[in-house]
Amino acid sequence: MLYWSDKAVAYADAHRLDSIDAVDVVVPVEHRAEVKSIVGFNGAVKANYQAGDMPGLGLGASVGAGVGVAGIIRNTGSIAAKVESNAMAQLMKMEHASGSHYFARHGAQTTLSQQYTRATTGLTPEGIAGGRVDSSRFLTHQNQLTAVQRAETIFKQTGKTSFDFDMGKIIGEGYLRGEVMLSIRLKFRQYIEMENC
After folding, report:
1. pLDDT 10s digit of each residue in the chain, 197 long?
2. What is the C-alpha to C-alpha distance for residues 167 and 153, in angstroms, rounded to an integer?
3. Which of 46, 12, 41 has the alpha carbon at shortest distance from 26?
4. CB of 141 within 8 A of CB of 107?
5. Which residues, at least 6 apart from 64, have a Cβ–Cβ distance to it below 8 Å?
């Protein structure tokens, strides 16, 4: 899968595309879901590194009093970037454990273009053909993690597999089934079906 991930990223760089969108062009259908997860995760890591979130090792020598300083580790990244990266990793792990598709199909790593394609043709972000449905993505991984955790709590407390709740803020964007107009909900209601997504 790393071979295809590298190919998708190289194609994206050469054609000025989003890496996730490049996966649909370069990678065979049967590998797209896994490659998109890898590309999405690596993209988040790269963004965190560029933001200064990944630790850098610096070697320096102090000439004062002949004292040497070696292996200084510094972390200059933002807390928000760490939270987002951790939320993404946790969502990927949770999705893998559950066998569902809420991260692959609705995560912040998906693009509006992919959501439009699903709403108008039924093709999911990971390349699986299906029926046209309302299709949306979360704006951040942290928003999605909060929604999933809240849904799991409601499920455990009530046993209901389909319900809705108000997040109280804009947490997502997407398209209505078959519609060209973008649908952004002011108080995005997250409908959770624990078995199907």
Report:
1. 677 777 888 888 888 877 778 888 888 888 787 777 777 666 554 544 444 444 433 333 333 333 333 444 444 457 778 888 888 999 988 888 888 888 889 999 999 889 889 989 999 998 999 999 888 899 899 989 888 888 888 888 988 887 777 787 888 888 888 765 555 444 444 444 433 34
2. 14
3. 12
4. yes
5. none
Alpha carbons 91 and 14: distance in angstroms, whole number = 30
Dist. CA 37–CA 43, nearest whole Å: 10
As a whole number of Å, the CA-based R_g of the chain is 20
DSSP 15: H
**What is the reported pTM?**
0.55
Here the tokens at position 47 are 């963004």
Number of residues in the chain: 197
Output the six-digit token pair for 118.
């699903």
Half-sphere exposure of 100 (CA within 13 A, CB side): 17
